[in-house]
Amino acid sequence: AKVFVSVTGSFSVSSVHSEVRFEQKSRYTVNDPGAPTIALPSHRIKWTYVTKEKATTILVASEGKVQVETEYLDRVTMVNYPLVATDASMEITELSSKDSGTYRCEVIHGIEDNYDSVDIQVQGTPQTLLVFKIKVRIVFHYRAITSRYTLTFEEAKAACSQSSAAIATPAQLQAAYDDGYHQCDAGWLSDQTVRYPIQEPRERCYGDKENFPGVRTYGVRDVNETYDVYCFAEKMSGRVFYSMSVEKFSFYEAGDQCAKLGARLATTGELYLAWKAGMDVCNAGWLADRSVRYPINIARPQCGGGLLGVRTVYLFTNQTGYPYPDSRYDAICFQGKLFTETENKVTN
């Protein structure tokens, strides 16, 4: 049996859901031989097992290396670190009743020291894999495979759902704008309005605010009108990873490759969540909706023109259409795990 505990995101502690999140200042990059040298993660992660009698160190992760204490060797791993430097997830195998107790995660970054803990109760002979959800949230713009502005309101909601997300609310888009989000594309929101966030107004992006920054709105629109959509993702019970080959894969080969690895092609929303958590790979890969994208957290000219974000490979120069299915790219896979939000128990 295994237990998988995950703490990730920007430094704050929530008393309601026990959420530890931190903002990463330097990141670790993989799979891009042409990239400049990047500093290793500068924060320190420490997992501790706490009982009434004592606190026992399980592992310490620092500068891209993980040191596991002798008692936990062969039982404990960091799931995505340092590939995703902001992911403090820890996986424990071979659980028994003596493993019941409190597990504390401490993240030290400079002079900041933040922590959170989770209580685990093991009963009987455990067979269940338990995963705590990753606390990352993101609003992203989504365009249909065919062209720009082709989604009715109902189709927009369905597109977000198929991307492991939900159609965003006005408040969620406003929060994303407040965090610096900029996108000059009108998209549906959950209240049947159409809006888009503009940080630096320019011609054809002025909207109803003219030269002022802010979220533009078309107001409430007829459900049969067509636009793009803004989606909101916040839950990911598993991991996103690349499968690479010298010859690359067609779209259908990519799906088969992920299946061979006990996974499936990742959705657009899952890749956005992985990017938000720090994933940085300068290789384009197939996703489940037949789009081709790649996550960039460190700006360099050869990777998306020096821009950050989830970069998309379009078929046409006007940024529409997806590559043909027989085009060859890497595969971006998702391996899901059972998770619960209400109980922290491992049972038969």
Task: Quickly describe the structure.
The protein has helices at 153-162, 170-178, 251-260, 268-276; strands at 2-5, 12-14, 19-21, 44-50, 55-62, 65-68, 76-78, 90-93, 101-109, 112-122, 129-131, 138-142, 166-167, 187-188, 193-198, 214-220, 228-233, 238-243, 264-265, 285-286, 292-296, 309-312, 330-336, 345-346.
Walkthrough of the structure:
With 348 residues, the protein is mainly β. It has 3 domains: 2-135, Immunoglobulins (Immunoglobulin-like); 138-232, Mannose-Binding Protein A, Chain A; 237-336, Mannose-Binding Protein A, subunit A (Mannose-Binding Protein A, Chain A). It has helices at residues 153-162, 170-178, 251-260, 268-276, and strands spanning 2-5, 12-14, 19-21, 44-50, 55-62, 65-68, 76-78, 90-93, 101-109, 112-122, 129-131, 138-142, 166-167, 187-188, 193-198, 214-220, 228-233, 238-243, 264-265, 285-286, 292-296, 309-312, 330-336, 345-346. The strands form 5 sheets. A 6-stranded mixed beta sheet has the order 6-5-4-9-10-24, with no helix packed on it. Strands 12, 13, 14, 15, 16 and 17 form a 6-stranded mixed beta sheet that branches. The longest helix has 10 residues, at 153-162. One of its GO terms (molecular function) is metal ion binding. Residues 41-121 form the Ig-like domain.
